[in-house]
Amino acid sequence: MVHYIVTGEALGDDRPKGEPMGADFLNGYFAAGSIVVADQSFAVTQDGVAIGENYLVAGVAETEGLQQTRWKSDLAILNPGTASASIDLIYRHDGVQENSTLEVGPGTITELANVAVDTFGAPDSAGAVELQSTVPLIVTARTYNAAPSGTFGQFIPGVTSALGIAAGAEATLSQLSSSSEVRTNIGFVDLGGTGAMARIRLFDGSGAAVGSELGEIIPAGGWSQRNRVFHAAIAGDCMGCYAVVDIVGNGGPIWAYASVVDAASGDPTTIPMERIDTVPVAGDERYLVAGVASTDGANQTRWKSNLALLNLSGQGVTADLTYRHSGGSEVSSVTLGDGELHEFANIAADLFGADRLLAIPDEVAGTNDELVVVRVLNRDTEVDCQLLSRVPDTFELETLGCD
Fold it and tell me: pTM here?
């Protein structure tokens, strides 16, 4: 991608260093020519030196949380290319920003532990980190509760504007819960550099709206999170629920996630948003969900999986599920109304009667809009991870064994 200077007026990234990125932030190389718009010819110059990318990482923190939790973040930057990456890092939090720079060599990875403090010198803070790079990167982060018994963490990706939703689009966050045992937070980052107002709507498993709609102001190039979202919406307890998020007015694009936190351990699960307009609507497609389990693990752990099916097709659907494992296979099915979410707790045992290792992966085939979310967790400590696949209307869900 390149940006253009037409008749001498710069249209690209001429902002001061550290200001929020905009949708027009692109890097190119020197060239000259002309462009015709509405039968008028304009002189064009491409400027810049390399094709680069901007990334935003949400929920970077070094701060106290609810129920005696302490949250920290590690940030990893992988340069998969053949040229060195020059990176400007901007940490926006609490209305201020901190800046740093970094070089990452070709084919190497750099990890910044406790990045809010060790890189930016900002304890007791929470916000978003923007990375402005001269070359494409792979950016990942781990935000975790540093508990006396160990760390309980969640994966947060570095996202670009192409992964967000613009005004007029919607995204869903599935498999949310709220009770005395678990809470749900919903967070956002602004990818457009102008700020936005996000709207949160909550639904129970039947598809009925619960609580009031919430608005969340996202600062330009920054991060915002609504904690205990069901409590804030006066929605009461809600298990196996979901949210729909969009933009009010202009602004964006934005990216959203949910963090579902176990009250006993402080262990969080990341639920990344799924754009509703990108869910397949036709064709027989198959999907794989990895790491589904009901089995003993190392260090006296016991692992099980919750699986959630969300139907957003506009009509009722029937899902056929096939579980394949080393001992054979089992088959089951479930019918979902439009807007309905069904969650299976410990799917291997409760649905298939198989209290043993479920296969890797689950395979799905079908048509129309549906989402599958799987949580794999330690039954005793509720330490878990989350896996997501987009799923269409009528499908077969398979699992293929693992060690």
Answer: 0.75
